[in-house]
């Protein structure tokens, strides 16, 4: 590390950081002077913001004039603000269901609760706990709700996280559920990337910014302390600490019926964790799990975890269990197989009820839900839950004091239905939405393309039944971090620009969801196949899907829009630099583009496990082959992209999007750019912002993709 980081240590953190931040920058490594657009990394810098505002104005002036813009926007706002939507349970605790709700009247949202019995019967009785908009207005802040951690078993005391503007940094304040008020003189933590959990009625485990040296290079807590009520935070005692190069260190407390099990999770990199159980006397007892396993939950004193690699005879992707009391007693616990997926399956989510483990999995990218129970001899058996095929299943919440869980099921053309599920019983619909659009003339198909190395890559294709190709195609993908892309109702996903996909299909075009490698569609191996030096596999998969669409006569080269957000924004940027002949448009959301600098910007250091370390010459050798910012070249006719991000994104630095646009401007290549001031990494806080983006995306697609076949 060098540059400003070293200068800060020499000059004194406060003085040097103040100088840098006053200019709108960040206390990070000094970048190379060879980059002509470094000023755009100054988030609130005067020149950077002037540039952003000019680009925003130019984009709005152009796209808002396009046909049907107002119609697209107003219809999207109606969809996204509709009060007739699923009230998905965020958590079930203490006989209550918690839910965060947004609508036209409450765009900032309501945090609310209902008695479990009433909710499960489909007749919730809601009680507002926090009106986020009203709170922000009263306190003069642009509060965004970021969740709450509540103390079991009474679940009356909670620590509520609020972000000013939508970023990952939050303040934490103690809240009383009974009175629905913040506790005067209660626990309170200032703004930082903080993680808290309850260590008892009067103590918290806290990972936060304790001052110089307490944060990792990734910008997260390096130190976890135990903070007791009635004492200053400075008096908190050390529980655990990691290395500066770690991603983060945090402590969490897992509820297991009437018991709790505290653990410390030291994230060495994005995919490797040193997990330790906290004994009653404060000792840290290492877990027997391998470093790349994920601890999911605890059931009857047994840790339930998902493996990412083969281990002790258990296959990668399997769910395993072991006795925590045995580990705390110094014994070597037996490792039990809870669930082992086959070659077509991937475990996505695991949660524990009172006596069962719920496993949500994919089977050729279709959702499945299984309830698994343990026999006295340590063997586990499963009961599949009869839910719709070829759908996405969301395991919303599982009650820890019963074997009731809630799952939402949806498909691209099938509106969501929330089910109450219990082992051995037919699922009971709690709330079913009516259709929000006419899908009678639409069809969803699943196809498989063959990638460059022979791998079969699935993708979903949505179009009108009367399709007569070739037509323009809008193709969305992600391809990273073992995050699967599954088919959701066309109006529901703001990260995919909400109802833009619906508009596209209604108007006679094709929408595609590509399940390229790097995601979790087929478990750890599908992800590993695109890690680090193998990243090109994900992009080759993308091109294979696009070429399969051309071969099938669905579309043509130059009439395909590639779409992605975050890591998917990187993918879309790569796509137009590597294959400008194949794509005619690109929707590039909250992207990484400067892969030489990504590890020095905000949380970027935490993703080196995914991409590699660009400061290591051997890693830069393969990263440099696809890094979009560096690979834009003069004399190439690139598709005109639509680039969007948020000023308040404190995860993926907005400088990535800004610099990519600036480089295009240097080359005299056109682009559209829109940067929301609020929104964090989601690039939107209120429904109106997502509705605006849906309208911008749709009019952009109509403008850039030719409707008639190429001559």
TrEMBL record:
GO molecular function terms listed in the Swiss-Prot or TrEMBL record:
oligopeptidase activity; serine-type endopeptidase activity
Query: Which Gene3D superfamilies does the record associate with it?
Result: alpha/beta hydrolase, Prolyl oligopeptidase, N-terminal domain
Q: Which GO terms describe its cellular component?
A: cytosol
Q: Which residues form the Peptidase S9A N-terminal domain?
A: 35-248
Under InterPro entries, the record lists: AB_hydrolase_fold, Pept_S9A_N, Peptidase_S9_cat, Peptidase_S9A, Prolyl_oligopep/macrocyclase
Q: Which BP terms from GO are recorded?
A: proteolysis
- Asked if the record carries the keyword Hydrolase, the reply is yes
Tell me any Pfam family this protein matches: Peptidase_S9_N
Which keywords belong to this entry? Hydrolase, Protease, Serine protease
Q: Does the keyword Hydrolase apply?
A: yes
- What sequence ranges are listed for the domain Peptidase S9 prolyl oligopeptidase catalytic? 503-684
What is the protein's name according to its record?
S9 family peptidase
Organism, as annotated: Sphingomonas chungangi
